[in-house]
């Protein structure tokens, strides 16, 4: 598993809180050591329900059960661009290591110098890039974004490909409240 040098350098410079550092090392450890168990590494996610435009799944890992709600965008631009599979995810781990962590997963490498931006109503959030994923730096921002999603009706995400193509996605938030409640019931 390749580690992103810029993420490690940011941690070393003290830009992440101690909680984020601990979470990062525990998640990386779970992913690295979980990869050594072929039975767990190949287990398929289990569908747990559909709530309007959001679906809920669970998956067993070396670190325990992971529960997540996800949605696909209702609209993607530019239309001529090959976006691949794009999802917005809210994940929680039964162990409590991760609670209601929002992230975007796209089908291409993101440009680290132009990280994804999320907008729900008047609330705006900047993410950092890890390959094909965008995450929020701050735990407080994670909770604020999830609260905004629960109140909102539409979420817009802009991102830039490694090659410099500006992309944008519009996600319906219909069903996100029920999906989040289901995730909490399964992994809370």
CATH 4th-level superfamily? Invasion associated locus B (IalB) protein
The number of strands is: 12
CATH class: Mainly Beta
Nearest-angstrom radius of gyration? 16 Å
Structural class: alpha+beta
Coarse morphology = globular
Model regions low in confidence, pLDDT < 50 over at least 5 residues: 1-40
Percent of residues in beta strands? 25-35%
**What share of the residues lie within helices?**
25-40%
Determine the N-to-C terminus distance.
29 Å
Number of domains: 1
> What is the chains' assembly state?
single chain
Number of helices: 5
Q: Biggest sheet, open or closed, and with what strands and sense?
A: 7 strands, antiparallel
What is the CATH topology descriptor?
A: Immunoglobulin-like
The overall average pLDDT, rounded, is 83
Order of helices and strands: HHHEEEEEEEEEEHEEH
CATH architecture: Sandwich
Strand order of the largest sheet: 1-2-3-5-6-10-9
Describe this structure in words.
This protein has helices at about 5-10, 20-35, 40, 140-150, 175-185; strands at about 45-50, 55-60, 65-70, 75, 85-95, 100-105, 115-120, 125, 130, 135, 155-160, 165-170. The protein is of the alpha+beta class. It has a single domain (about 45-185), classed as Invasion associated locus B (IalB) protein (Immunoglobulin-like). The strands form two sheets. It has a seven-stranded antiparallel sheet. Strands 4-12-11-7-8 form a five-stranded antiparallel sheet, covered by helices on one side. Mean pLDDT is about 85; it is low at about 1-40.
Notable traits:
188 residues; alpha+beta; Immunoglobulin-like; 5-stranded antiparallel β-sheet; 29% helix; globular; disordered N terminus
